[in-house]
Amino acid sequence: MKKIEHIGIAVKNLEDSNKLFSKLFGKDHYKTEVVESEGVKTSFFKVGKNKIELLEATNEESPIAKFIEKKGEGVHHIAFDVKDINTEVERLKKEDFVVLNDTPKKGADNKLVVFLHPKSTNGVLIELCQEIKK
């Protein structure tokens, strides 16, 4: 793993949360994007070298909707940038981590993503990210 790529925060209302975090960070978000396959609308902020991703559910079956219903708004996941997502998935499976999606899928911000189950990572949902080469 190369670095923390971003921290994902589940929110009920993206527009209201963008205003709140704009005040907090002293700058506006730089990008919004809908990821239909995950039922989520995202917004990204850059804070120094770090990124914060706000996530709003676009439907009631979205993992974000279920998260908020169960736990409320807050930190949803920590994402790590990896050099080779397939190699990293195989390595982590050998180390007995529970991988939620064996095959990387397209996520927000031009990334391939795989998630590790929180039960195998001390209660923290971990996302692995690899930039999609153009």
Automatic annotation (TrEMBL):
Short name of one Pfam family: Glyoxalase_4
Keyword Cytoplasm: no
Keyword Cell membrane carried by entry: no
InterPro entries (UniProt xref): Glyas_Bleomycin-R_OHBP_Dase, MeMalonyl-CoA_epimerase, MMCE/EMCE_epimerase, VOC_core
Residues in VOC domain copies: 3-131
Record key words, sorted: Metal-binding
Gene3D superfamilies per UniProt: 2,3-Dihydroxybiphenyl 1,2-Dioxygenase, domain 1 (3.10.180.10)
Family stated for the protein in its record: Belongs to the methylmalonyl-CoA epimerase family.
Name of the protein: Methylmalonyl-CoA epimerase
Species this protein is from: Hyunsoonleella aestuarii
Gene for this chain: mce
